[in-house]
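User: For documentation purposes, I need each entry recorded in a consistent format: the amino acid sequence on its own, followed directly by the corresponding structure tokens. There are two entries in this batch. Please keep commentary to a minimum and don't merge the entries.

Assistant: Recorded as requested. Entry 1:
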Amino acid sequence: MFRKFAAFGGCLALALLLAAALPSVALAAGSGTSAGTPTITVSIWQAALIALGYYLANSPWLFGLAFFTIYRPLVAGFFVGLILGDPAQGTLVGAAINVPFLAFGSYGGTLPIDPGFAGWVGVTLALAGHLDPATAVSIAFGLGLLGTIIFYTRMALDSVFAHWADARAEKADIAGVALMNWLPGQAFLFVASFVPVFIFALNGPSAVQDVLNRLPLWGVNGLVIAGGILPAIGIALNMRFIFRGSAIPYFFIGFILMTASHGSMSLVVIAALGLALAYLHLSFVRRDAPAQTATAATPAAEGARPAATAVPSTEPALRLTRGDLIRSWALWTFFAHANYNYERLQGTGFAHAMTPIIKRLYFTEDEIRAALKRHLVFFNTEPNFGNVVHGTVIAMEEQRANGAAIDDDAINSVKSGLMGPMAGIGDTLSQNTITPILLALGIGIAGGQAGGTTVPTLSNAVGNPLGAILYTVAISVVIVAIGYTAWMQGYARGRSFVTEILRSGTIDRVLIGAGVLGNMVLGALAATFVVVNLAPTVNIAGAQMNLQAAIIDPLFPGALALGLVLMTWWLLRRQVSPLAILAAYLVISILAAYPFFGPGQKNAGDYSYQACTSSLLHQYSPCGAPPAPTAQP
């Protein structure tokens, strides 16, 4: 299976490269001049290849490397230049556009701006219209903001496909869960990304402006609002496993710490504090009821293997092979973000990656069903450094399958406790350190000036495609090496750790401590991902006051978000369908963005940001202007 995926991804990448290398006569068939200025007419096939390139930049088919390579304007410019017959100039324009995106990062389902759209479309428009790089940079931000609409729409719709995976899990259908992770989401993504880029590439700048003018602004705002509300479902789904007993208060501690620090506290710090509190909890608080009793009432634990009281003394009957580990790692590397969505983020990707492990370790329908369901919950981490989490969980699954006393709570507590810290560490290193450094080197070689005050123009500078090529090779080698090493080390260290605690008889204390840590981190994640901002204001003593900013937040910052998470958890406990909750929250988000009242009701240009009283919810803050468009998250 690994070879099939690798061959498919390689063929798609080579198709773009080989098609771009068509004879120069075919590529130049649409070129001409206008008033002495050379222009390029983009043909239908060239526009299709450029649109395919943008889809690949957002797809999983390039072994998880698309985000670090062709999603960046430097590399996108090189490929657009190949397609249009001038890779040197394409690389130069791409380097110029990439300069303001040098510090770009996407974290936890957020996308402040889309450098992929800015790169693929911006370079196309610059080369076709013979724009200098400075002008290309000026239009790149508008294009990047337009690209976020595709992202927000995809994140909302992909949540539905996660429930399709749930339905397959109920039938113990391992292949069906895997299929639901990539097929429907990628089919939608192809249409949503290919069509607009194809139109823009074929019709030029006028198409961009026409689309921007025709979009209902309140609908776009509603998708942004939904991006802050839908994660409450994924958080609440995870709470069903660990939000119980004496560990409950730690969820609120994690939430309050994150909100009190206005989101500035690192998840690594919160996790460290959680470990300290777990130690104190185990030292001074009476032990909870046995974890096995609580797990029996958990919906996801139905059909689970009865827990043993000790690790078997003989050699495990069920052992994973290195091939199983490699296949699992390859599936995660390919498909971690294939069905990225607001509700569970990487949840279906995690379950997809676990399918080879589940096939090897479990045989009855009840066991398979339980294993699939416990891995379809909310999950999010950095997809390379964070592979330590997967390796550890795989080690726990192997011990569980051999009769060890490891239940659903233990596995999900470990996932919840480790994913946040590894995301903080991994994002800092991969997105904020390694990628910018290598990009700056590549931009410099290409002819751009990362960090400079000027950008070269097409008339007096020639780009060097070697900058894009060297960057692509370097970042690919580094990222793949990190991901593979973290995965294998997580399994090796995790296996020895799990075996040790089982033989020492401290499993119950470890499970309780993991519950404390998991609740702490989950509370912090809820404060980070769940956002509810009221827009209306009231007139008090002649002064306009925002209900949330002036009244609710001073009393309890984040109270609305916390209330939403708890209400969602309560609804799930009452057996309300997660899909029904998802549909309701999405509709509410869209309707709450509509200008029902206030000064922006008549004029569509008023109610987006400044006239916050015209809608019920606001997308960026309780009331006020949006953040300035920058490359920072």
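Entry 2:
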Amino acid sequence: MSNIKKFLPLYTTSVFGVINDNALKFLAAFVAMKWYSEDYGPTIVNITAAALVLPYLFLSPLAGKLPKYFTKIRIIRTAKLAEFGIMAVALLGIYLQNIYITVASVLLMGLQSALFSPSKYGLIKDIGGIKGISEGMGGMEAFSFIGMLLGAVIGSFISEYNNLLIYFGVLVGFAALGYLSSLTLKADEQKEVEDSTANPIKFIASATKITRKYKMLPRVIHLLCLFWWLSASLQTLLMTYCKEHFSMNNFQTGCVLAIMAVGVALGCVICGKLDKKHFMIGRVYMFGIAAAILLFIIYKCDISQTTFVVLVTAVAFLGGMFKIPLDAEIQKRVETKELNIILAYFNLLSFIYIFVAAGTNILIINYFGSQYVFLVLAIVFGLASFVFTFVYKSVITNFTLRKMKCHYRIKFEGDECLNVKKDENILLLPTHRAVIDPLLLLGTLGHINIRPLVDERFFKIPFIKGVLKQFQAVPVPDLRKSRKGVEQAMQLDSIIYSQLIEGGNILFYPSGHVTTDGKETIGARRLAYDICRKLPENTRVIGLRIYGLWGSQWSRYKKSATPNIVKLLLKSFVLIYTGVILFMKKRDVKFEFFDITDKTKEWSQMPKMDFNHKMEEFYNVYPDGEPPMVL
């Protein structure tokens, strides 16, 4: 059975629910706006939007707990049955023109959605398995945004008519379709064994601890929550902005929101397909920054109605591309037994962000004007996307490698020796030709969890310090500065040794400095010697010769001092993002890996200076130094 056939019952059950969520929200907001003056429009819109998400703040913990006692399919079917009663409350509120009952029905719809949402997303892995996660999430989100599209259009359209029978036919009709679809659900559900509390405060505390088990996962969750903050802010803003600035009626406004939903759905589907073959989470920052630029253009420029619709649709499309890799990362990384709790936790946090979006919109509009909402969204979303690039290890390595490939052709030889057995680990000892080679190494070896030893002065640079922390870099003290540095250096070998004993991988340069003449000079340094003398049995020593960087701007070729890496990085980014790098000749760089475990064990029986001399002979294939490659 194809994946689309497997997921179709889940997709249709979800989409009919999303249609009713949004149809009721738009209908309630637009109908209620007719009962009051225009001044109350933004407040009514934001209160209605907040009512739909408020239950998530309190009921997400309970929703995450339910699959321990009931199957996910049963939870979904029960929720769909409850939808009929909620629609009856909504119709009563509209009939009586009572805003309290009408908003209460939206609140009840949020309650129903909150209770079955974790179960709905939890079924993705049960239906499609690990391999079907990206495609399943892409399809689910695409169908969800199609539901938002249809719900926005339908709710906006029928709000133009004062006909309770039409309202009844639409709301109850989609509730019936949703329930019938839920009857076709089939899944090989895995039993939920992880227990959790239904108390929201305690749940957040316990779920936060669980997310920390999965390194850097909290950053994924919070960035994904920012997407929902952006989406909610735009949706509630446009419900009044389109009328104020472009004189659109309710139906036209609904159509704009529907077109945006199409954009998000397309982004989700395309990214879901691409994520199966490409590392799309490594491109999330690009989508976020591009969306931020478009939002800034909307804020800054006086644009036509058509241009406005095109730009917000493009923002929505980029949002879909932005969202799916983060969704998939949660599903891929979290164990099945804890997935429902994490999804409930994410639901709770995302709706806190959505709830905050309603409040921030009101404040910004009241104090500055609706146009400034676009500015705030651009700044926050752009900055968050940029920062994410440098606080998530796999994204850092992917970003670094792709940027370096603009100027370097990297060739590997002997890298098969890095494929050690499960019970073995690596001590990587490379040559140090230029200040850029650590970035090239960490970028190309990102699939290996390896801790580099790094000069402590780099930990004093805020930006670089954050990157080094992601790689769990070990600071190496400057022995020339203080006695404390000497004491710390004496502890380094024990730190490295304990890391190797525990199965960790370590990278450090035996010479301890960038070469000044194209040759590796270890001199009287003793770190490599001391480690190899007591090398753990499970450790493989890998020697690495690097060619092609000597003579580059990153090396000390014809320089009296080591190049400033920060200045060179800034210069490189300018060359890359202005396109100048495309017209420059590429540099050929070669990494040669050798398993020198047996050799280093043999050499370590010699005196220190003899050991270092043997290492220098291994590194220095060119006795007079590597010929510089000057481009």
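Summary note for entry 2:
The CA atoms of residues 291 and 315 lie 5 Å apart.
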